[in-house]
Amino acid sequence: MGGVSIWHWIVVGIIVMLLFGRGKVSELMGDVAKGIKSFKKGMAEEENPPAPTAATEPPKTIDQAAAATAQKVEAERKV
After folding, report:
1. Do the beta carbons of residue 25 and residue 17 sit within 8 Å?
2. For residue range 28-52, what is the model confidence (pLDDT) as tens digits?
3. CA-CA distance, 44 to 40, in Å (whole number)?
4. pTM
5. From its phi and psi, is residue 37 left (phi > 0), alpha (psi between -120 and 50) or beta?
């Protein structure tokens, strides 16, 4: 008791075929295959990150940001 033999799987397969029909099962398996291919493609794209693009402005450090803010404040005081 409790063991699943090949005959159990055959009976389950026959019941599934009767309920859904042969065409529906093949469509379902095709959709599963497409999903797996899409997943693999997504994982392959994730492994190869895109090349870094040239930035128009160098990244600002805290000192540069503080200097830019100070320049803005001074410009507003002059106006």
Report:
1. yes
2. 888 999 999 999 988 887 666 556 6
3. 6
4. 0.36
5. alpha
